[in-house]
Amino acid sequence: MQGNCSANARPTRTAGFQLRAFVSLLLIASGVLVIGSAVVVLLAPSGRAAVLSGWSALGVGRQGRVAIHDIFGLLWVPLLGVHVVLNRRPILCYLKDRARQSYALRKETVAALAVTAVLVMLTLSRVPPLATLIALGHQGPAR
C-alpha cells in the first residue's frame, strides 16, 4: 500500500458525527456486555431451582441474560468488519511496520497461537477443568 504511515497522517476532527469513534465505542460497550453476560450465565444457577426461586442478576433472568449475550455477540461480527474497514490504513501501516522490523514470527505470536490451539483441542476433548466449566455453564453451580 502506498501512503503515509507516520503518526502525523491522522485525519483532522470535524464537528459532524464520527463513525469511527461510534463503531469503536459500540464495540467496547458490546464487548463489556458479552463478557459480563458470559460470566453471569456461566456462574448463575439454572434449571428448575433457578426458575422456581426467581433468581435474577440486576433484575434480568436467565433468558434475558442469554438473549443479551447472543445479540451483542452477534453484533460484534458486523461491527468488527466495519471497524477493520474504517481503520484499514492504520492497521495496514501497523502490519507493514511490524513486517519491516522482523520477517520471522515473534515468540509471542507463536506462543499465542499454540495456547489457542491447545485450548481448542482440550475444549473439544472435554478435558477437566474445561469440561467442568462447560458443565457449569449448562447446569449452574451445585448447591
Structure report:
- With 143 residues, the protein is an all-alpha fold.
- It contains six helices and no strands.
- Helix 1 (19-43) runs antiparallel to helix 3.
- The N and C termini lie far apart (59 Å).
In short:
With 143 residues, the chain is mainly α. It has six helices and no strands. The protein has two domains: 85 residues, no CATH class; 40 residues, no CATH class.
Report low-confidence residues grouped into runs of 5 or more. Answer: none
Mean pLDDT metric: 76
Silhouette:
flat
Number of strands: 0
What is the percent of helical residues?
A: 55-70%
Number of helical segments? 6
End-to-end separation in angstroms reads: 59 Å
How can the largest sheet be summarized? none
The figure for the number of domains is: 2
Strand content: under 5%
Q: Please trace the helix and strand order, writing H or E for each element.
A: HHHHHH
- Counting helices, strands and paired strands, the structural category is mainly alpha
Cα radius of gyration in angstroms: 21 Å
